[in-house]
Amino acid sequence: MIKKNADIDSAKKKRFQSSLFDTVKVKVRIRHENLYLLRQQHPKRIFHNDGHYKVRGKHKGTFAIIGNADGGDALYIEASIPNYLTGQNLVGHEDLMVGAIEMIDAVLRRARISPTAEEQQAYRAGDFELLRVDYANHLWCGSARRAQYFMAALRRHTVARSQDYTAYKKETLYWRQHSSRQTLKAYDKGRQIAKKPMAPHVYAAAALTKRAAGLIRFELTLRADELKRLGLRDPSAWTAEVARRMLGERVGEVLPTNGRVPNEALFGKLSRGLRQRLELFLRGGTNAFTDYPGSFAKSKKEVMEETGIDITSVATPAQQAQAFSTLREMFDEGWDYKCWARKWEKMKAGRVA
Asked: Is residue 55 within 8 Å of 8, Cβ to Cβ?
């Protein structure tokens, strides 16, 4: 029997790729009622929080931010396209105009804002302005542990290079976080989903959650001034190729050419303590095991059985090369793009009860 989500929930070790447009902010010419009054009329759909009016999506925990523009002649709308429409943002598609129009339609419908036929025809033809665009791609690391290794090594080398960065714990890195123009973000997508699980009604939620383990998400945010400078406020100017090129160039700027990540195939079966000592040993720490004479014999036997490395000898260059991958090698192996447009309609429909 073929599994319902066999195309997503495939073999565990099969590489998983996903690239997509995520959060956008648009300015669309729609005359509308005062938002305070609109909130009073529809309190279950519209709420006020952190100084913003927000429109609840059909998926639990999702919302769009709306605001007055041009004295009520236009409307600001900001939301994650995939999250607002499907309840998740791991997969989506790379047609920015189509996604933004669908998001505008959904927010207006949920907020009970009725555009005129002329207004609707205009924005559905692409006559709206982009004030923020987020585009994301995922680096496939092969496993959750290797993703953690990658983030740890990336953080160490980012700190060492004294870049304009902000680090949150060991899971997230921002470059130029507070820039008014652009920000790059990297984080462990599997951990993020584990902390904020997808709702059960999200299409293929369980399968997507499994595939997220081992993914590092790189996300580029371009804000209004940068979009204007680049001539990208017009949604018709965006293509997948433009977005991929811009993200790839920015990631290339911050990714160190050195930095080494342990090979899980070699280290994976060892206990955490033995892994750390073996890493130190292979990096040239000859006393990594001899400092623990009481457990030396046991450690020697276990390391030999699991890895074939004799800790009583000096690690050879070949053993060192086998034990580690550079960040660049992991990037070259796991970086690719894939648009999930063919699943988009099913994603929007959600899981059928």
From this structure: no
